[in-house]
Design a protein that fits this description.
- The complex is a heterodimer of chains A (257) and B (269).
- In chain A, helix 3 crosses helix 4.
- The C terminus of chain A is likely disordered.
- Chain A has a domain of 159 residues: P-loop containing nucleotide triphosphate hydrolases (Rossmann fold, 3-Layer(aba) Sandwich), CATH 3.40.50.300.
- The longest helix of chain A has 18 residues.
- With 257 residues, chain A is an alpha/beta fold.
- In chain A, the strands form three sheets. Chain A has a six-stranded mixed sheet with strand order 5-6-7-3-8-9, sandwiched between helices. In chain A, strands 2-1-4 form a three-stranded antiparallel sheet, covered by helices on one side. Chain A has a two-stranded antiparallel sheet with strand order 10-11.
- With 269 residues, chain B is an all-alpha fold.
- Chain B has twelve helices and no strands.
- Chain B has one domain: ABC transporter involved in vitamin B12 uptake, BtuC (Orthogonal Bundle), CATH 1.10.3470.
- The termini of chain B are far apart.
- Classes of the chains: A alpha/beta (257), B mainly alpha (269).
- At the A-B interface, loops of A face helix 7, helix 8 and helix 11 of B.
Chain lengths: 257, 269
């Protein structure tokens, strides 16, 4: 077994003594697609910032493989209107050669926009540009924060499909945050349900990976069937606090179907 | 040598050379002011320059040095205070800008034997520029331009997306400090041209005018420098022919070129 790209051990991040990320452990290997889901304020973004090294952790360890190159796709590219920027210039700011930048743009399907202004791109095009920007760095690990935000529903499915293809091409690891359960499940290996602590984690039903099944029944059925089934042995109240006392040591037991 | 001497002996040429030197750095830095929404921040630093002047008389340090140091200290204080989030940043800026200006004025009033030309400090005294001022301006400009060229990619990247820049290994915080140092330097040298009250105009107006025509950041920087040159040249001519105050004339020229470009040019890319 190769060394994992990322290993988190009992990582805790606190804001004003309130744990936002609470004793989270996870391992990401090459070829993994790990999707982090969870309600608003569950600490998803804080967790990936800890992985990216731009959020200090209060306890626990984030271990990255030596020489790991991370391609980061932020939630949005909110460009100041006063800053003129073409797609070409934005790509070149990665410090990579133009040929590499163009190859990355082709891979994400926005090469025709090379000389367009970033201000004129649609939400979907911007996300593909950000993805190309991350690809140009030839990453070992792609980290995406809600990559489909601001993308219409058809575009979303295509975007997740693209991410899966990129994983296969680059043989990189992928860690992403998503709200789009139905879409994500068909393209993901492992799901982590986060609500400060890891509520549960595991693999979506195997059947969703079967191309024959998807072809026969169509994407919609496959996707709805692919939704990860699990039982929590604890409940959360409206504040996200654990209600019953089953959880004592930070790990929770689940039954997986 | 004789031609250069002849030029440098003429107050009008000295003023023009000095003004162009300041426009050379005000262009690129003004772009960062516009991109990073630092207009009010720049204003605060400029106001605190007056405090620096007062201090330079009080403890007899060279004027430019005192202004630079005061600006750097105020800039650092601003960054630290805004991190505590006790008050909104614009409130903080409002407090510091005018307090620094007022403390500067009050301090000066305690030194009756110091004769300062307050109007010159507030609105600039371009025509009184001497050779030493020119040396400061071009020395400062060269330093800032070299620093900008070296740090350009990182500065631009952290302006576009700070977190993305961080992930890519750009030292965002150090670059922020470098940018503040450059602002302080430019304010110290630009003070002579347009005075502490009008410096922000020289930073913001040419850059904003350039935005209308620019397709890329570098393009905008070059255009901002050109519009800065036009403002200085036009303002000085205005001042020469109509006997108007030089500093405000520069700003008025900048403003009219802004109006002209925005009414003629199509919406930008």
């Amino acid at each position: 077994m190769a060394e994992p790209l990322v290993r988190l051990e009992q990582v805790t991040v606190q804001f004003d003594d309130r744990p936002v990320v609470d004793r989270v452990s996870l391992v990401a290997n090459r070829g993994d697609i790990i999707t982090i889901i969870g309600p608003n304020g569950a600490g998803k973004t804080t967790l990936i910032k800890a992985i990216l090294g731009i959020q200090k952790t209060d306890r626990g360890q984030v271990k990255l493989a030596p020489g790991l190159v991370i391609g980061y796709v932020p939630q949005q590219l909110l460009l100041e209107a006063t800053l003129p920027l073409s797609v070409r210039r934005f790509m070149l700011l990665s410090g990579r050669a133009l040929t590499e930048c163009e190859a990355a743009l082709k891979r994400t399907g926005v090469h025709h926009l090379l000389d367009a202004s970033v201000h004129h791109l649609s939400g979907g095009e911007k996300q593909r540009l950000l993805l190309a920007r991350a690809l140009a760095r030839k990453p070992d690990l792609l980290v995406l924060d809600e990559p489909a935000q601001g993308v219409d529903i058809n575009g979303q499915a295509a975007l997740y499909e693209l991410i899966r293809e990129l994983r296969d091409d680059l043989h990189c690891g992928v860690i992403m945050i998503s709200h789009d359960l139905h879409l994500v499940m068909a393209a993901t290996d492992k799901v982590i349900c986060l609500n400060q602590h890891v509520c549960c984690s595991g693999y979506p039903a195997d059947i969703s990976h079967d191309p024959a099944f998807i072809e026969t029944f169509g994407h919609q059925v496959a996707e709805s069937l692919a939704v990860y089934h699990h039982h929590h042995n604890h409940r959360h109240d409206l504040h996200g606090d654990v209600v019953n006392s089953a959880r004592t040591d930070g790990a929770c037991n689940h039954e997986h179907h | 040598m004789s031609i250069i001497d002849a030029i440098l002996d003429d107050f009008f040429w000295r003023a023009l050379l000095g003004g162009l030197g300041v426009a050379l750095v005000a262009g690129p830095l003004g772009c960062f002011v516009v991109w990073r929404r630092l207009a009010y921040f720049g204003d605060t630093l400029a106001h605190s320059a007056l405090l620096g002047i007062a201090l330079s008389f009080l403890i007899s340090v060279p004027l430019n040095l005192a202004v630079i140091i005061t600006c750097v200290v105020i800039a650092l204080a601003l960054v630290l205070l805004s991190r505590t989030r006790v008050l909104a940043t614009d409130t903080l800026l409002g407090i510091l800008a005018h307090s620094a200006l007022a403390i500067g004025l009050v301090t000066l009033s305690f030194m009756p034997d110091v004769r300062v030309d307050l109007t010159g400090l507030l609105f600039g005294d371009l025509l009184a520029m001497n050779r030493q001022d020119l040396l400061w301006i071009y020395g400062g400009a060269a330093f800032v331009l070299v620093l900008l060229a070296v740090l350009w990619r990182g500065l631009l990247m952290s302006t576009i997306h700070e977190e993305l820049a961080r992930v890519e290994g750009v030292p965002v915080e150090r670059l922020r400090l470098a940018l503040m140092l450059m602002f302080s330097l430019v304010i110290a040298v630009a003070m002579k041209i347009v005075g502490v009250l009008l410096i922000t105009a020289l930073l913001v107006i040419p850059a904003a005018t350039a935005r209308r025509l620019a397709r890329n950041p570098e393009h905008m920087v070059v255009l901002a420098i050109v519009f800065g040159f036009l403002a200085v040249g036009g303002g000085l001519s205005l001042s020469w022919h109509l006997d108007t105050p030089a500093g405000p004339s520069v700003v008025v020229t900048a403003f009219f070129s802004f109006l002209l470009v925005y009414s003629l040019a199509r919406k930008p890319a």
